[in-house]
Sequence to fold (244 residues):
Amino acid sequence: MPGYLLIESRDPFESTGAARTCELAIQLRAAGHDVALFLVQNGVLAVRSGVRRPELDKVIRTQIEVLADDFSLRERGISSASLIGGVRAAPIGSVVERLAAGWNALWH
Amino acid sequence: MTKQTLTFVLMDAPFESARTTTAFRLLHAALDRGCDVNVFAYEGAVALSFAKQAQHANAVHGRDATQEDHPLSKNWIAALMTHARERGADLNWVNCGLCVDERGVGEAIDGVRRGSPADCWKMAQQSVATLVIPTK
Fold:
């Protein structure tokens, strides 16, 4: 069964919608779906260590795969080595891989 | 192996949002993977391929148009079309005709055609996946 790829582009400190995306990811996982969260653009600001991010922490605790766009990280001076646990830097091609596998993708 | 087709639906006007850059990166990655790619551009995104886009000088920084070398989305699309040909892939770019007329941007670069929302539906039907990248 194809999974769900949620793409979050918003700054979580500017948009409450980013928290809703996290909630949706958790609900989809609870419903038995494969889920991945891809953070891009200002969406990657949540993965810096020392940042308060309760919604993303819940996603990580739910064992949902969380990827951060490597290009967006470099643009913002965030080192891949400084990412919090449970988040992995990934190329934009990882989105394409899931699309090609038939995953349902939702951009926010 | 059957060739896969992906569809991307773009809405942002050029020179306004990081979403445009991300969208172009996705298109490039999909072509790199050997996928055929459909793009349906609507609302402001129909101006991405407008042929009359022009570079300009930057008087604040004292640079002429050549020195400024301001990037133009029409050139990025042309480069993606070249990349598709080199990869043996199709890049099928359709602009929403109603959106084009509203904005007076009917003069698109070669390889871009005019269509309607019905084309978007057909693209999605023919694709393994469709990603809509909306504005806020």
Chain A has a mean pLDDT of 95. The CA atoms of residues 7 and 38 of chain A lie 5 Å apart. The beta strands of chain A are 4-8, 35-39, 65-69, 87-90, 104-107.
